[in-house]
Every structure is written in C-alpha cells, then in structure tokens.
Amino acid sequence: MRAKKTYICLAALIPFLLVALLYEILPLIMVMINSFQPDQGSGFTLGNYTTVFTKLIYQKAIINSIKISVTSAVIGILIAFIGAKAVDDCRGRMSYFFTTVLNMVSNFAGVPLAFAYMILLGNAGWMVHVGQRLGLEGLANYNLYTSGGMSLIYVYFQIPLATLLLIPAFDGIRKEWQEANALLGGSGVGFWWHVGLPVLMPSIMGTFSVLFANALAAYATVYALMMNNISLLPIQIAGSYVGEIQIRKGLGGALSVVMMILMVCMILITNRISRIYEPTSRKRGECA
Length: 288
Fold this sequence. Notes:
Blueprint: H1 2-34, H2 47-54, H3 56-89, H4 93-106, H5 111-121, H6 126-134, H7 137-140, H8 147-166, H9 175-183, H10 188-216, H11 220-226, H12 233-241, H13 249-287
C-alpha cells in the first residue's frame, strides 16, 4: 500500500519536474555553456568574463546592482519589521484588511509602477508641482531619474513582500516571554534586543536574501523609467541579447552567471548568520 502511494506521488510530481527541467535547469545549463563560448564561432574562452570584470560599464553595473539591492533590502526589512509587528499586535479584521492590502500592493510592480512614479515624482509630476507651490525645495527639485530615485522605487516594492514574509515569524514570539520580561522589570527595548531579535534573526536573514534576489533581478520598472541610462546587471544582460548591432549571447551568459554567483553568495552569507542564531532560537522554544 505504501509503495503504491509512493508511485502515485512520483507520478504527480512528473509534470512539475518536466517544467523545472525545460524552463529552469536546461536554460541554466545553456547560459553557463554560452558564457564560455565566443560570440562568433565556437570553442572555449574566458574572454567574456574578462570583459565583464575589466570594462567600466560592466563593473558599474555590478556595483550599482549590489548597492541598490542591499540598500532596498535593508530599508525594506526595517519598515516591514514595524508593519509585521503591527499586524501581530492587532488581530482580527484589521489584521485581515492589512494583509489583503499587502497582497494587492505586492503585485503592483513593473511598468504600471514606473508609470505611477512618473505621474507622482517625474519632472512634471503632481508632487513636484505641489512642492513648487508650497516652496518645498527638496520636493520641488526632486529628480526621480537618478540612482536615489531608483532606490526609492525598489524600496516601495520590497516593503510589502518583506512584511508578508515576516508576519508568520512573529508567531514564534511568545506572549509569556514579554509578560515575564515586564514582571522582572525589563524594558521593551531590552526584550527585543536580547530575546525578540535573536529569535527572529533566521527569518530576517531569509527575508533579506529573498529581497536581495528580488531587487538584483528586477528589470521592467527600472528599464521603463531609465532605459539604458543607468547601468544595472539586468539591463546589461537584456542589452546583450537584444543588441542593435549583434547579439552577444556569450557576454550575456557571463553577466547572468555573475548575477547568479552574487545571489548564491548572499544566500550563503545569510544562511551562515542564520545558523549562528538558530541555537538561540531553538533554546528559547525549548524553555517555553
């Protein structure tokens, strides 16, 4: 009977395995193979990686992508932490309404998001006009089409995703711990510094790696606003495959591999930090 159930489960997994093989594994292998081939002809070469790490435009693309990804992930988690705690504190209809809004906002990205920011903060945006009328120099002279403006947009679509990922983590914070801390004369800040954050740190690190990957691979919004006027890894990868002069699939493959390496490195770093805090989190749970 158990063997029959095993076969049924394996048969049910076949469609998903085929999709993963055709649309994830095989394209990944082809990209890696192309990264070691010249754009014209065949053979093995490291010239694509040499180009990526020696040409200034690609160096800037890597640096800018890391900066924007890390900045938006950190700011997104800080704001999402407050939002997730608010959802955990207010149960019932308000929590359900807040979660519904987060789900709706988290899907608002890409070209529609770029268009919305152009209407609000573009050179002729509504909020820019308001700043000019009220004499608010910072708002009146705000330039959306800079790396700072891009970071603001990235933070916008990072916050809902981070909040949704952190909300379940707060279930691990027992109310009894906070009550015991209050009875022993501890402060709220001390509780979160010594108990709350160590318990939540694995979830925070996991969320950070997701946000980093989400920002690193984001393409549609920034391209709709900036076109090729800002050097980012996704834009350079797309330009390699749809170039006006020639398609440089070898260079595009090398850039893609560099992006994947950055993601893997960030995952390894966050996993390492999570393992440091996991024993603390486990001990808290056992004591409870």
